[in-house]
Amino acid sequence: MTGTGDAQKAFYITSPIYYVSGQPHIGTAYTTIACDVLARYQRLRGRDVVFATGTDEHGQKVVRGAADAGMSPQDFVDGLVADYKRAWERLHVEYSRFIRTTEPEHTRLVQRVFARLVASGDIYKAEYTGWYCIPCETYLLEQDLDDGNCPECGRPTEQVSQEAYFFRTSKYADALLHHIEEHEDFIGPDSRRNEVIAFIKSGLRDSCVSRTRSDWDIPVPDDESQSVYVWFDALLNYLTVAGYGDDEDRFERIWPADVQLMGKDILPRFHATIWPAMLMALGLPLPRTLFGHGWWSDADGQKMSKSKGNFIDPFETVQRLVEYSGTRTAFAVDALRYYVLREVPFGLDGSFSMRGLLSRFNADLANDLGNLLNRSLPLLQRYVDGIVPEAGPASGALAEDIARTVAGMETQLERLNYRDALIALWQLIARCNKFVDEREPWLLHKQGKRVELDAVLYDVVDCIRAVAILVSPFMPEVGEEVWDQLGLKHAGTRMSWADARAGALAPGTHINRGVPIFPRIDIDGVLAEQPEAAEEQQAATAKANAISFKQFQAVELVTGKVVEAERVPEADKLLVLRVDVGEAQPRQIVAGLAEHFNPRQLLGRTVIVVANLEPATIRGIESNGMILAAGEKQPLALITTDGEVEPGHKVR
Ligand code: MSP
């Protein structure tokens, strides 16, 4: 995933390009922040990085949005694009290219590719009859619909019957399957990879890639009656950025993409099927890794949606953090970046909770990282006039810990395990805090053991310096601040990943102690004033009471079929399952079954699910329901059905 090893090849990372129909929210921010962390990490390692993000500006949704706002589509998107750019800047996202699908360069590329695929016979004209979901910009067949509505967003669909162009996705099914099977890193995480394989094996249809002409969309070349379908247009942005067909040197340097990140919703069908098939049709190498991360829901486990108005606004969240803690906005932004990547394994769903964020803020940021800085730098001021002492022969006590951390983080980041990379780093922080406790520099000072004292102080500050480097892809402003407090900014020393090793700190550096970065928050105090806390309290009281028959009747028990099962990292007892309960999407359920079953043993089993249990977040992972089991013995007995029952049947 780190590329070819050829120094000339840029590390190319992409985020999806976002629809401009709304403001950025925590979901879109999540993808973009994850990309940014990787881009910063690779830059620190000295790679030439191309990190592209941008906006997907065509489609009927934009036309309608503009009409509703009484604006021209162009003015409408221009305004929203400015909002996106501002938002990314405020979230410390440093992209190298912001691509808009309305750019002439992109429009030209789309038309060239379209014409070329028509010429090669990979795109052909035929009659299309089916359904279309405008909010998702997706073509659907009758059997895909959920009560007439879009299976993805639940909104009404429109019937379409038109002449249209089709791309021969089906022609590439075998080659694609082969590629996926040969390249383990091509699609992640594993659960998504399996989903994609199953999707392709279930039989691919050719993809409709045009719509009846609209003035706003890209015209199909040489056909007045048609415009290019937005997804076909949007996916090609990744080639526009790379200079495909326009700048050969640039294309050589950038393509193929190293990592393409996105939410799980747009992976199987679009990015892992149509997109690689398009590349194959163009005879281009495929991206190295496509990764579909999980979804954030709100604290109640409700999917965020415009209609519910429950989108988490990252800036409102940052503002609250600032108010509650008194920290600077830049550090609150970094705390949010930390929380989203630390709380949930990257491929799984999570629910965003203010209490969860504040707890992480206190435990990991104020206590662990903040404390390390706030207790260590004063020791240097007190005992060595704030000047980094000579290392001396006794120093280097943390060298191995630092080396292990760096190696661990590299491995984890290679796999896009942001959470485990942070866990590894926090182990180093804990180790360094413990080192101060064990070595008791205050005693060494009292006892006049100057050489030992110097060695301990050097090791601690040197380790904090390594921490600043290692944390900075995740929390760039915090990394800078620590760098500054260590006096390294003033000394003109620049961060590089290679310097995250023991002994690279120059003796004689004047430290520059600042105010605490992360003041502790009185969580219960601040949340008591919030309406959601009262609701939590109410829910807790309700839980403690016995239930009436009516309440029992309210329990919705349904049959389900386990379609995926895997262990929850670092939790001995937990499995995360995906259970088909007859809904459009399988439910994600966290169950305490890991000591009883191998994940594989559960696949295909019929289980009974409490379907209307309020969602919970377990180890940061969202759980939507409960699976029934009984008994004392190992393994537990799963409650299942006597005969074959399809998923989604009510248990009466
Ligand atoms: N325009 C298309 C992408 C085209 S890429 C060639 C699109 N845009 S989007 O604005 O709807 O969403 C972009 C990304 O945001 C997706 O990766 C999606 O998964 C992510 N998220 C949107 N809501 C989300 C959550 N609530 N949680 C996590 N990510 C989610 O799709």
Task: Describe what this molecule looks like in 3D.
A six-stranded parallel β-sheet has the order 3-2-1-11-12-7, with helices on both faces. A five-stranded antiparallel β-sheet has the order 17-16-15-18-21. The chain has a four-stranded antiparallel β-sheet with strand order 5-4-6-8. α5 runs antiparallel to α6 (190-201) and α15 runs antiparallel to α17. The protein has 652 residues and is α/β, with parallel strands linked by helices. 43% of the residues lie in helices and 17% in strands. A hairpin with a 6-residue loop joins β22 (629-630) and β23 (637-638). It has 22 helices and 23 strands. It folds into three domains: 11-297, Rossmann fold (3-Layer(aba) Sandwich), CATH 3.40.50; 335-499, Orthogonal Bundle (Isoleucyl-tRNA Synthetase, Domain 1); 546-638, OB fold (Dihydrolipoamide Acetyltransferase, E2P), CATH 2.40.50. The model is unreliable at 1-5 (pLDDT under 50). The structure holds 5'-O-[(L-methionyl)-sulphamoyl]adenosine (MSP). The site of 5'-O-[(L-methionyl)-sulphamoyl]adenosine has 19 residues, from β1, α1, α7 and β11.
Separation of the first and last Cα atoms: 51 Å
Question: With helices defined by DSSP (H or I, 4 residues minimum), what is the helix count?
Answer: 22
CATH-derived topology of the largest domain: Rossmann fold
- Which architecture name of the largest domain does CATH use? 3-Layer(aba) Sandwich
- Global outline: globular
The CATH superfamily title of the largest domain = HUPs
Overall mean confidence score, pLDDT: 92
Bound molecules: 5'-O-[(L-methionyl)-sulphamoyl]adenosine
Number of domains: 3
Unreliable segments of 5+ consecutive residues: 1-5
Task: Decide which structural class fits the backbone.
Answer: alpha/beta
* Major sheet attributes: 6 strands, parallel
Assembly state (oligomeric): single chain
Q: Class of the largest domain in CATH?
A: Alpha Beta
Q: What is the number of strand segments?
A: 23
- Helical content class: 40-55%
Query: What Rg, in angstroms, do the CA atoms define?
Result: 27 Å
Major sheet: order of its strands?
3-2-1-11-12-7
Work out the strand percent: 15-25%
